[in-house]
Specification:
This protein has two domains: about 220 residues, TIM Barrel (Alpha-Beta Barrel), CATH 3.20.20.10; about 130 residues, Beta Barrel (Lyase, Ornithine Decarboxylase, Chain A, domain 1). The protein has eleven helices and 19 strands. Strands 2-3-4-5-6-7-8-9 form an eight-stranded parallel β-barrel, surrounded by six helices. A six-stranded mixed beta sheet has the order 16-15-18-10-1-19. Strands 11-14-17 form a three-stranded antiparallel beta sheet, with no helix packed on it. It starts with 8 loop residues before the first strand and ends in a 6-residue tail after the last strand. It is an alpha/beta fold. The structure holds pyridoxal-5'-phosphate.
Length: about 375
């Protein structure tokens, strides 16, 4: 790609914001270590550059869902510790072990598979034991926890694994005061006490972004921020916590044209012009992650003024009604950004679509290049 190549749309990611957010979260977390959650392509922000920026900001390890994501970090030259925490049967565990990827296990069968890989490859694997303290998703239930601990201790005694973590995940840390939070903390203490009595001295961790900023008692030895790392608030009604949004999603106006009053716009004519006007075409659609229910709802910024999506969002494009606002083909359209220039924020998009910012940023499609910059450090 030549440097003069202009992309029709791009997601600009400010790595200095990610570094800032990591440093801020590390400070908030007190003495706890920071494991940066970079799953799902660093929440759509671009895996390797964001992982490196988080490490620069003070993260000491990285967390991903799948082994393939962990291997993509290794392929990208990242040598920091990486934990993969979602491992269904049939995953390439041998390869993970060979590449020094730490693995989570929430059931004895998985501990046994990891131990078998360790035996085959002649390596020792760092394992984090996952306990389900109330989210009822991954991890061993309280009833199954002793059996998991026993299986892990057996593999550790054989020198195949090192039990490096005891961990869990909150269901509702983003709802301060929710009774499930205290219940999960109690269950976590009980599970880790049981593990300790059995001889396990591993690091404990449970806190996601929302817990880091609201629950000092949930920090334990390590915290796992995701959304906050990218500068998006884990609890929007409580403010931004000093975080800086890293992503700005922009496109170029692909076409500008005059149409008469009463013109039906896009599939189904869900928007009709109220006067003679000018339409602007934006080359992003639901295949790029612009959700279809943004139709007639979400806003964008063009030359300092905001416009609402006019008519159906299509696969590759959508339209705005520019009225008499001066705009020409090639002008920049800002879908969302940090909000410094009156552009909508990702939070505003999430609010107008009835979702959370996690879904907006992770859904931005493969056609949209991620362009990594360091805004704060620009001359
Ligand atoms: C995604 C994820 C996180 C980060 O969650 P945020 O709410 O984005 O901070 C932490 N831990 C686990 C297990 C996760 O899957």
């Amino acid at each position: 790609m030549s440097s003069s190549f202009v992309t029709p749309a791009e997601a600009r990611v400010d790595l200095s914001a990610i570094r800032h957010n990591a440093a801020l979260l590390k400070e908030v977390a007190g003495g706890a270590e920071l494991m940066a959650a970079v799953k799902a392509d660093a929440y759509g922000h671009g895996l390797v550059p964001c992982a490196e920026a988080a490490l620069e900001g003070g993260a000491s390890s990285l967390g991903v869902a799948t082994i393939r994501e962990a291997m993509a970090l290794r392929d990208g030259g990242v040598i920091a510790p990486v934990l993969a925490w979602l491992i269904p049967p049939g995953e390439p565990i041998d390869e993970a072990v060979a590449r020094h990827i730490d693995l989570s296990a929430g059931a004895p069968w998985l501990v046994e598979e990891i131990a078998a890989s360790a035996r085959r490859t002649g390596k020792t694997v760092n394992v984090h034991l996952k306990v389900d303290t109330g989210i009822s998703r991954g991890g061993a239930s309280a009833a199954d926890w002793p059996e998991l601990v026993e299986a892990a201790l057996k593999a550790q005694a054989e020198g195949l694994i090192v039990i490096d973590g005891v961990w869990s995940h909150f269901a509702s840390a983003d709802i301060p005061g929710d009774p499930s939070i205290e219940a999960q903390l109690r269950a976590f203490d009980e599970a880790s006490d049981l593990a300790k009595r059995a001889g396990i001295t591993a690091r404990r961790h449970i806190a996601n972004s929302a817990a880091i900023v609201t629950l000092p008692q949930a920090r334990y030895d390590l915290v796992r921020p995701g959304i906050a790392l990218y500068g998006l608030s884990p609890i929007p009604h409580m403010g931004d916590f000093g975080l800086r949004p890293a992503m700005t999603l922009t496109a170029k106006l692909a076409l500008v044209k005059k149409v008469p009053k009463g013109t039906g716009v896009s599939y189904g004519h869900l928007y009709t012009t109220k006067s003679d006007t000018t339409l602007g075409l934006i080359p992003l659609g639901y295949a790029d992650g612009i959700m279809r229910n943004a139709t007639n709802r979400a806003q964008v910024l063009v030359n300092d003024r905001r416009f609402t999506v006019a008519g159906r969002v299509c696969m590759d494009q959508f339209t705005i009604d520019l009225g008499d606002h001066p705009a020409t083909e090639g002008d920049e359209v800002v879908l969302f950004g940090p909000g410094d220039r009156n552009e909508p924020t990702c939070q505003e998009w999430a609010d107008s679509l009835g979702t959370i910012t996690h879904e907006i940023v992770t859904r931005i499609g493969a056609r949209v290049p991620r362009v990594h910059v360091r805004q704060g450090e620009r001359e």
